[in-house]
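Here comes just one.
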Amino acid sequence: MAQAVNHLRQKFQEYPGAQIAIKEFEQGPPVEAPIEIRLMGDNLPELTRIAKDTERIFRKTAGTINIDNPLRTSKTDLRVNINREKAGLLGVPLIDIDRTVRMAIAGLPVATYREPKVMNIRL
């Protein structure tokens, strides 16, 4: 079993940009990870720097796998200021503006392809 797990981990490392975690089934109480570090504070840039340093240390440590750093990529907030009066005068429903912005950023599910397996199609 360990050989199969190691083979899969090596195989899935070849996919750039994908985060794939192979986990072995374990009995007992649920545990997110055997090692977990939580950094807390009010200074987000400093926390991000420390989190990246901590991640780097773990990546250099032999035997560590499935390293997850939620601060690895910065999140972007987007604020869309809608001129509601003008949209109303032009007959553009706010829901259409919302859908258009969401589609431009993350895509929208438009269909499902079912062969050979179920896949959602996003526009």
Notes: Strands lie at 109-113, 119-122. The first strand starts at residue 109 and ends at 113.
